[in-house]
């Protein structure tokens, strides 16, 4: 008998993403699972691998309409960022070298 996974629907993001884009470098280095997982986490306010100061800055930025930045690591060990612009017009997935 197969195991049935029961979970509620995913929670709505805490903010609008606008247009979601990915740079060429990130597209070449990351899997779909890396990208979609990071976007889900970013939208929920899980800022990834940031220190306490930068997490607090993001919470302030969320409340005051400023730019949001998250940092994640792919399954293969590649660090990458997800950035949502202050006007919430766009969210970009990119590598640190592309920042």
Structure in a nutshell:
The protein is of the alpha+beta class and 99 residues long. The chain is 32% helix and 21% strand. It has a 4-stranded mixed β-sheet.
Model description:
This protein has 99 residues and is α+β, with helices and mostly antiparallel strands. It contains 3 helices and 4 strands. It has a 4-stranded mixed sheet. It starts with 18 loop residues before the first strand and ends in a 5-residue tail after the last strand. The chain has one domain. The radius of gyration is 14 Å and the shape is globular. It is 32% helix and 21% strand. Mean pLDDT is 92; it is low at 1-5.
What's the tally of helices? 3
Mean pLDDT: 92
Shape: globular
Strand order of the largest sheet: 1-4-3-2
Q: How many separate structural domains?
A: 1
Give the uncertain stretches in residue-range form: 1-5
Residue share in helix? 25-40%
Secondary-structure-based class equals alpha+beta
- Major sheet, described briefly? 4 strands, mixed
Note the gap between the termini.
49 Å
Structural Rg = 14 Å
Strand content: 15-25%
The counted number of beta strands is 4
**Would you list the SSEs in sequence order as H and E?**
EHHHEEE
Key features of this structure:
99 residues; alpha+beta; disordered N terminus
Secondary-structure topology with pairs:
Blueprint: E1 19-22, H1 24-29, H2 32-44, H3 52-64, E2 68-73, E3 79-84, E4 90-94
Parallel strand pairs: 1-4
Antiparallel strand pairs: 2-3, 3-4
